């Protein structure tokens, strides 16, 4: 017969072993859940698409969190969000659009400016860019690519620059509108347009190295392109911690260095 004291000791050992196994099982289950968590879906304004690839790689390196992206014009992305698109974070090309999404209940946080964009003229033709915007009135320039100002902040900035130079009336018949800054770039790259207004972040991308020539447009000729990020409602409801972590990452030294590499000015 096992002494009473011995029985208690045996029961205590058994209970501890069972508790240890339970803790290990819980930890394994949690680890599995983290490992198999759905990637964050980041909606990315077209001008940020090249920088985003480096941002996503650095974010995964630092946190282990996977992301996937969709890219398009800011206006189109906002429309998709309003129609139920399951995006977690929105990296916008302006601050007004994500702030409006927050006010209308489609975002879980107020918009926060992560960078300021810059506008450039880019061409693959033999054109004298030293003339600046006045070049656009030249008869050699038949088609000018520009992002749709109703959808794309860079398109609005381009129209402001033309107004500032008092060239809008003269060149408006030459304008070819792209849905986004990416499509505008494609127009010039394919030869469908002689020259185009695109983002500095695009011409500085490694993929664009050696393609054509460009000149930056005076920032005083258009309103600052303040670009903001926001956690969307879907992200707050499904992966709140990871979505917030991604947004916070964009303001870390490593992320800011990537933005600077692509020609953005930091707030």
CATH architecture of the largest domain: 3-Layer(aba) Sandwich
Structural class: alpha/beta
Q: What is the CATH topology of the largest domain?
A: D-Maltodextrin-Binding Protein, domain 2
Number of folding domains? 2
Contiguous uncertain segments of 5+ residues: 22-36
Rg over CA atoms: 26 Å
Please estimate the helix content. Answer: 40-55%
Strand order of the largest sheet: 2-1-3-10-4
The count of helical stretches stands at: 11
Mean pLDDT: 90
Q: SSE order, as H and E?
A: HEHEHEHEEEHHEHEHEEHHH
How can the largest sheet be summarized? 5 strands, mixed
Query: For the terminal residues, how far apart are their CA atoms?
Result: 78 Å
CATH class value of the largest domain = Alpha Beta
Q: What is the number of beta strands? A: 10
What is the general shape?
A: globular
Find the CATH superfamily of the largest domain: Periplasmic binding protein-like II
Key attributes of the depicted protein:
267 residues, alpha/beta, D-Maltodextrin-Binding Protein, domain 2, 2 domains, 11 helices, 10 strands, 45% helix
Question: Explain this structure to me?
Answer:
The protein is an alpha/beta fold. The chain has 2 domains: 40-116 and 225-261, D-Maltodextrin-Binding Protein, domain 2, CATH 3.40.190; 117-221, D-Maltodextrin-Binding Protein, domain 2, CATH 3.40.190.10. It has 11 helices and 10 strands. It has a 5-stranded mixed sheet with strand order 2-1-3-10-4, with helices on both faces. Strand 1 (40-45), helix 2 (49-63) and strand 2 (67-72) form a beta-alpha-beta unit. Helix 2 packs antiparallel against helix 11 (253-261). The radius of gyration is 26 Å and the shape is globular. Residues 22-36 have low confidence and may be disordered.
